[in-house]
Specification:
Layout lengths: L10 E4 L7 H7 L4 E7 L2 H4 L2 H9 L5 E8 L5 H14 L3 E6 L1 H13 L24 E5 L11 E6 L4 E6 L7 E4 L9 H20 L7 H21 L4 H21 L3 H13 L3 H17 L4 H10 L8 H15 L16 H7 L15 H11 L1
Helix pairs in contact: 4-5, 6-7, 6-8, 6-10, 7-8, 7-11, 9-10, 10-12, 10-14, 11-12, 13-14
The structure holds fe (ii) ion.
The site of fe (ii) ion has 5 residues, from helix 6.
Length: 383
């Protein structure tokens, strides 16, 4: 028997229309002063923020809105939000939005009780977090990062061009409200990018050195579901039934990868995202095929066979080539243009990017050991 740990202390509530229960859930958690953490536009332009504030009027709860979260959030946004939370005496943090808003919300909640800046706790310094933060409700409006069920918060340091994560059990949400309705307004491109992110989470969790008997079926189901439904959502953005499938898959891939960690694709995608200033899911797509090609060489027949079946490759004959081809086709259905050179990355940037890769937590859980040379080789192939 295999040894494994599995811990996910998040109450998950999944279903269409549940977002309207956010005020009621806040009240049930005993909140008196909540801070809603979100991005600048989406929640306002869709009218959801106003509706939500209206519902809050029925409860004895003061609501503050911190809508300063940009895509690829810099660490100091967390410090600013935590300062506000402290000054106002906030007792519940609510993150609503894409991965950035949720990552910032959970980091604000934990930062409230910590000295210094949140960047002091990034990467390997995450274990310096010894005090629990405020409770959180996390509500995704994209189907991709699965931040609402993970112990990870990804932040950027614009000065050093680093994109790193805090990983800690205290970052788990108290409650995740996962409502497919909120993903309906996600534009076409972002639907593809966030769905690809979820696809890669499933893939990398399945291949991770920590993949186990509990996470494997979750990762494979997510992989199969996203492979099947993401292209259909992409061409039918208004179909909530299809959105629901992809959001469900994103959720279970998050439950899997928060246990297993990710792999080389994410380790490479983080510095690429910073260098090229492109969405995370796109950065992942750009390095998926050469990284997977590298990993496939050492995978067991069982792994290759299970991975193949999830994406429509049913025979082991030339399975590696067929798997790579299927994924290439999947990206092209989603109109992803591959090639790092198409996104402002120069050949001479590659060694600098390769230097950054080992800093990522995902580097250690790749199924095949990586080093500077192999990473550089993958980057050249992805160029
Ligand atoms: Fe990701």
């Amino acid at each position: 028997m295999q040894h494994f740990n599995f811990y996910i202390p998040v109450m998950i509530k999944f279903g269409i229309g549940l977002w309207e229960k956010i005020p009621e859930e806040s009240y049930s958690l005993g909140a008196k002063k909540v801070l809603i953490v979100t991005g600048k536009k989406h929640l306002k332009s869709t009218g959801i923020l106003d509706k939500l504030l209206n519902i809050y009027n029925n409860y004895p709860i003061d609501v503050y809105v911190f809508d300063e979260v940009p895509p690829e959030p810099p660490y100091y946004i967390v410090d600013q939000g935590a300062e506000i939370a402290k000054t106002k005496g906030i007792d519940l943090v609510i993150g609503i939005g894409g991965g950035s808003a949720l990552d910032v919300a959970k980091a604000i909640a934990v930062k409230v009780n910590l000295p210094g800046t949140i960047w002091d706790y990034i990467g390997d310094n995450s274990n310096k977090i010894t005090i629990k933060g405020l409770p959180t409700i996390l509500v995704p409006t994209t189907a991709g990062t699965a931040s609402e069920v993970t112990r990870v918060s990804v932040l950027i340091n614009p000065e050093t061009k680093e994109k790193l994560s805090i990983r800690h059990d205290f970052l788990y949400a108290t409650l995740a409200i996962i409502d497919p309705y909120l993903t309906l307004s996600l534009p076409k491109e972002n639907t593809a990018y966030s769905g690809i992110d979820a696809f890669i989470h499933s893939l990398e969790s399945f291949l991770s050195v920590n993949s186990n008997m509990v996470t494997e079926p979750l990762a494979l189901t997510a992989l199969r579901t996203i492979y099947k439904y993401l292209p259909r959502v992409y061409n039918n953005l208004e179909r909530i039934d299809l959105r629901e499938k992809v959001l469900y898959a994103s959720t279970i891939s998050g439950i899997a990868f928060t246990q297993t960690g990710l792999g080389g694709i994410h380790a490479l995608a983080h510095p690429i995202g910073v260098y090229a200033n492109i969405p995370h899911g796109l950065a992942c797509a750009l390095v998926t095929i050469p990284t997977l090609e590298y990993n496939l060489e050492i995978l067991s027949r069982e792994k290759i066979s299970a991975l193949g079946r999830a994406i429509g490759v049913y025979s082991l004959r030339s399975a590696k080539e067929k798997i790579l081809k299927k994924i290439d086709e999947f990206f092209s259905i989603l109109n992803i243009k591959l090639g790092l050179h198409n996104y402002g990355i120069k050949w001479e940037d590659l060694p600098n990017i390769a230097q950054e890769v080992p800093k990522s937590g995902s580097y250690k859980t790749n199924p095949r050991t990586l080093n500077y040379e192999t990473v550089l080789e993958i980057l050249k192939k992805a160029f």
